[in-house]
Amino acid sequence: MTIHEQFARAREWLREVGHGLWHGMIEHPAFEDIEDEAHDVEDAFFFACFADAFGVPTPASYYTSELLPYLADEFDAWERRMWERESVLDWKGHFHF
Fold it and tell me: What is d(CA 47, CA 75) in angstroms, rounded to the nearest whole number?
């Protein structure tokens, strides 16, 4: 193995380590925050559309029931997530009381 090949391997190893550090320290937490926020927005949208499933009467539910065939795949998972929450403070899961 020549010295050039050893430098190339070391450079490749350093590039992989740098990418791993960048992903672990910067990208991954940012992706988690984006996914959490998208999840919360989706939950709020479903709650606004189908609040009557939890006994909250809304006049909009008559109109939003037309969305149910399009949202049926996600509706069961959303309803299960909402029932599993213990309190309103558990809504976002980011509050540390």
Answer: 10
